[in-house]
Design a protein that fits this description.
Elements: H1 5-15, E1 19-22, E2 40-45, E3 48-53, H2 54-63, H3 67-74, H4 80-87, H5 92-99, H6 107-125
Parallel strand pairs: 1-2
Antiparallel strand pairs: 2-3
Helix pairs in contact: 2-3, 2-5, 5-6
């Protein structure tokens, strides 16, 4: 069952939970939408689960030319190994670190992204 982004965000308000579980999300609904960083969902389908920061995905989708990454990352038919083979990253934070700076959304996030980028680049060389 597909749940709209508006319904997901409303659930966060009503349930007052840190993380909610959903089965599906249409990535195109992120277009033009700003979501607070740390808005986490667990995407669960066909025995596979992935925790996702919707705020970070909305930045990647809207400001980092990462539409294809977001679509693939939300598609649980792709394993994290599949994501890594295609994008050289395992998470949305890694993708942000490699492909989005110098976008400064939050000073702490910018610092983490800079350090993570150095780690990812050294990991990929070995």
């Amino acid at each position: 069952m597909t749940v709209s982004l508006a319904e997901i965000l409303e659930r966060f308000k009503l349930e007052e939970e840190d993380v909610i579980t959903i089965e599906n999300l249409n990535p195109d609904e992120l277009k033009g939408v700003e979501i607070k960083l740390g808005t986490n969902v667990i995407l669960q389908m066909k025995g596979r689960k992935r925790i996702i920061d919707l705020g970070l995905l909305s930045i990647i989708f809207n400001k980092c030319d990462g539409v294809n990454f977001v679509k693939d990352f939300l598609n649980l038919n792709y394993s994290l190994d599949d994501i890594h083979r295609r994008y050289r990253v395992y998470t949305e934070l890694e993708y942000f670190s490699l492909n989005c700076p110098p976008i400064v959304v939050d000073p702490d996030l910018a610092e983490v992204a800079t350090k993570l980028k150095a780690f990812i680049l050294s990991r990929e060389k070995s």
